[in-house]
Specification:
- The structure is a single chain.
- By secondary structure, the protein is an alpha/beta fold.
- It folds into two domains: 230 residues, no CATH class; 214 residues, Carbon-nitrogen hydrolase (Nitrilase/N-carbamoyl-D-aminoacid amidohydrolase, 4-Layer Sandwich).
- It has 17 helices and twelve strands.
- The strands form two sheets. It has a six-stranded mixed β-sheet. A six-stranded mixed β-sheet has the order 6-7-8-9-10-11, covered by helices on one side.
- Helix 2 runs antiparallel to helix 3, helix 2 crosses helix 4 and helix 4 runs antiparallel to helix 6.
- The longest helix has 26 residues.
- It is globular and about 75 Å long.
- It is an enzyme of class 2 (transferase).
- Catalyzes the phospholipid dependent N-acylation of the N-terminal cysteine of apolipoprotein, the last step in lipoprotein maturation.
- Belongs to the CN hydrolase family. Apolipoprotein N-acyltransferase subfamily.
- It is found in: Cell membrane.
Length: 499
Amino acid sequence: MANFGAQFSARPAWFRLITLAALGAAAGLGQAPFDLWQVTILALAVLFALYPAAQSSRQSAFHVWAFGFGYFAFSLRWIVEPFLVDIARHGWMAPFALFLMAAGAAVFWALAAWIASRLSPRSTIMFGLMLVAAEVLRALILTGFPWALLGHVWVTTGIAQVAAFGGPHLLTLLAVLSGLAVAALIGRDRISGLVVLGLLLALSFVMRPGLATQPTDDLPVVRLVQPNAPQNQKWDPEFTDVFLRRLTTYSAQGIVPDLVVWPETAVPYLLNHIVDDLGFLADSARGAPLVFGIQRRDAEAQAYNSLVVVGPGGTVQSTYDKRHLVPFGEYIPGARLLGQMGATGLARNLGVGFTPGATPGPVQLPGIGAAVPLICYEGIFAEEITYGNTRPRLLLLITNDAWFGKAAGPHQHLAQARLRAIEQGLPMVRVANTGISAMIDPKGRITAALPLGVEGAIDAPLPAALAATPYSRWGDLPVILVVVLFIFAAYFRAGRDSD
């Protein structure tokens, strides 16, 4: 294998770029909807096996960047979908958006390889640990983008349950350890590789959640309503009432549930303008609390992407404003600062978009309890789910995944929602405009769902919450400390070996 690595490093740069990018794309098959985690682990193993043969820190970084570019270009391919909603105006930007997103994310991995090779040349363990650190950094820096983390490949396996102890970064650490173990089997340290793989295999069997338990009659029933409004029609005046009629019609049918939930921006009007009409919407829930997404403005004309809880008669009982906004999608970074600095004309041209909310929740659902509110993008940030001293009854996520099309994006977004439920030990009610709407139990199992691209409603019992998980108490800090300690241990060990 060492000879193979040396031969590979001696090949032309274009050959190495294409080969490693293809290998990285193969690693992306572990992400939803394919969920081929085995392919991801094998691709990582090949990368780890090739890593020591790099002839310099610069070449190490180049190799890993190419691998990362392929991985992110394949995993984040859904990023082109928003630009295809109005293809005549924005379609030309789609390939540039994908290239820049993949290239930028891959820089984190390349930096990990460069630092690892400077600290401990040719040490695959040091590189693996730095790769985990890079994923943590990617999840946090510049508002963070923890999409397609390596640890997400475990969502459909028993290992996903480990997230209750250490969150997504512990899953990433286990993915990297798996790749290192397979690389050890390919190389000379077969015993270590077998031991690590054996432990991980045992862990996956021990942690398997099994089948979901049968619901009991005392559980509240939640109605998830999915209007299926395509993004190119959602704000069209000719269709807004059509989709609103779907929501009220499906809400008013059948048994009276304990809670009715509509998706993000389900109501296509400003909350300020329809206060007197909320009774009509509430009537469709027939006395049950109604949750829906809507936009609103405050007294200073600042805009918010909001979730509201409406009770009988149309009374607004709770309001939550989205706190973690999408850069360049819901606001332009720096536009407000430009205005404060006097560049009001430029700030006005850029637009300031939505204003982040000031309070984290939870919101109260009459007859059910406290819910942690999440709006779309907020569901990917495990470390930002907070709720104070009182443990809530559920996680409540409303979203509009129509922006993501019908391919990988909605499936990957759903997979991350499943992890949030596992991490917190709480059931999640997830309602999406075009799907996938789902009831998720505290083990991440989907107990009821509406597929992509259909309109309708589904009644699902709300699973019972579990006891508070270690992750809900301590967050990412323990795993980050473990990774840092391992990095120091690997560095000092490398120093002793070189003496």
